[in-house]
What we know:
The complex is a heterotrimer. Chain B is an all-alpha fold. Chain B is built from 13 helices and no strands. Chain B starts with a helix and ends with a helix. Chain C has a six-stranded mixed beta sheet, with helices on both faces. Chain C is globular and about 50 Å long. The two termini of chain C are about 15 Å apart. The interface between A and B is large, with 92 and 89 residues.
Amino acid sequence: MEKITERILTASALISAFITVLIFAFLLIFGLPLLQGGQWFGLLAQPWSPREGLYGIRPMLLGTVYISLLGMAFALPLSFGCSALISVFAPRRFGGFLRKVVQLMTGVPTVVYGFVGIFLLVPMVREIFQGGSGMCVLTASLMLAVLISPTLILFFVDGFDRVPRSYLNAVAALGGNEAQQFIFVILPNAWKSVLSGIVLAFGRAMGDTLIALMIAGNAVQVPGSVLESARTLTAHIALVIASDYDSPEFKSIFACGLTLYLFSTMMVVLIRSIGAIFGRKEK
Amino acid sequence: MSRWMERTMIVFCWICGLVLLAAIATIFGYLLYQGLGTVNLRLIFGNISAVDALLLRKHVFAGLFPAMVGTLAVVTLSVGFAIPVGIASGVYMAEYARGGVKWVLGFCFDILAGVPSIVIGLFGFALAIFLHRHFSAGIYPSLFISSLSLAVLVLPYIIRSTQFALENLPAETRLIAVALGATKLQNIVYVLIPKSLSGIFSGVILAIGRCAEDTAVILLTGAVAFAGVPKSLFVQYEALPFYIYYISSQYANQQELSSGYGASIILLLICALLFFVASMTQKGVTYQALYRA
Amino acid sequence: MNDPVKIKIEHLFFSYRDRFVLRDANLRIAENTITAIIGPSGIGKSTFLMTLNRLWETIPGAKLQGRIEIKFQGQFQEIHDRNYPPTTLRRSVGMVFQTPNPLPMNIFGNVSFPLKLAGFRQKSKMADRVEQALKRAYLWDEVKDRLNEDALLLSGGQQQRLCIARALILEPEILLLDEPTSSLDPKAGAVIEELLVNLKNSCTLLIVSHYQDQVQRVADIVFELAEGKFVPMPVWK
Lengths: 283, 293, 237
């Protein structure tokens, strides 16, 4: 009885892990024709121009990078400030309230953010910048920032809260105020959480589909400015899925998929090594 | 660090907090303003009476009912697939796996948790094609494929929350039954799992919420705008998040647009409720939020 | 004083994470006695107890070397013998922990739990065994009318007696007690001390305690754990 159960449990775990590999395998197999002959890098570098037979995903790659980076640029300071507020500077009750709000925000479906983004944010951007459709990199990044900030904030707050009380008391007893406690004690001790949070959020930003799909405009071009439309790897997959199975356009989405898969794997490796470095420092 | 700089920093933090609150208040406020008026039985059931619709006597064409049923169906199926495999794997990781094996498996699960949902949808799509070619021509992107894909999406959450709950039991709790002569399995079944139930449960609730709100996966694996209430596993179906996405670009008139707002409110309520339930049953909400990748 | 020996410990070395608890320790425990192990806090008395029911194997990085033999039904058994499963050992060597740890079940469920683990099926006999165990633990009168109640509703002292009953239901020949009264008030502690003395006839008890007066009241033989070895101490009766 014991042995059988152990075998079943082991099998479950192995199957689950196998799925991870299976996903990669499927992406590879389906994208194979387009990837053969070292076309991989060519694919990443080429523009998308079906008429010329070019199915490079470069514009989408850059679209992903720009929107994610800009989104992070908005989200990081905002999250940092909010988390410091919750953890250190705000009075107990307000801090608790803000934390609850942030927790609730993580439960909001992405599609709802996208929906509100289209009808509220896009016209606003259009108005402010007088021109363009409003569906551009900027708008998408703003909404993306709202999407990933809660996760970032909670991560940071968790890291800040883990710093032992005794360190803070020590600084307080020496006459340090809250700001000084934050700078000299909390930050140096929580840097690992902060870094992991950033990596995690960046992964989420790059992997998001709906906000970019609904708000960024989806033009297949390398955006020249933040007010121009762009398409991300994720949106590209969603848009092209309706194409004919055997067309090269179709296979390009597997190239996008592979790129995204490899990116997210890299993020995982990064987080693990941050954890590992921290572990070694402890000893 | 001068007083001036400290002051500025504190002011900056307060501004951030207020900006965040303003942002979410605006979003919620706008949504409620535009959509609260439409949330009524009409929105859900169209012109059909609720009773007829619920008993499936008549088709609902102009209401959210089919989409809600579709979402319910896909969530139930995917969680149904994911729970047994997820809990079993979590138990294995916490109680049996050691050293190199544990490291490798953990790494795989981390990767799986980080894979963007659209890529998982793509996998599901590819899986459908594969099964279609090699298995049965009757397999298309459908409720079945969507549920499998969503199960893959939420599997890491269930595994991790089960593992986390078990690993964080106090050391002495692990010894009680063992000291009384229990075997490893008896200990797990009679003591460890019952004591971890709240953690496991909130992982499940989180998974349910994730399945309910996901759009990217179902977009690629069988969700469509018009399909009625799903009659079998192997057909296309409607879903609430997909409806919202569809309406956002395909709305024909103000009424349809309003229904989009209404649907958003309903979906928001469902997810908020699930998240609330999860936070009630587990103290480490932050951890849960983090794994809601 | 020529009681037969129940437990023989010879040349025992025990360490975990490179911390030595026992260095070439030797000890003989007599049958049907209460033997007390005393010593400073943190020296490893509780850990030593765990060597006797092989719970030490759950401690990460633990290493053990030496002989531990326990006399079961007239014959000495090396408890680490490959053919002797730890689960069987633990049914004959019961353990009571410092803080009462009832499981989230009712009183009957808690006390009968070891029977369930051992595969005991006869429901009728179960009730008798539970009653007997609760009587030996001086708890029967207080709970006989509420066996269905949640065990966590009992007071601290009652919970500890519940744990003792739970440990006794399989009728172990040895009972290990790790500071059994340290989390209780003196009155509750006194009840337990009394029941322990009464258990001597049917059981061999090994108790870890840091209360000198308790040791003097209760124990027949006292050893101090110092520098990894057991040193006999006088008992003033």
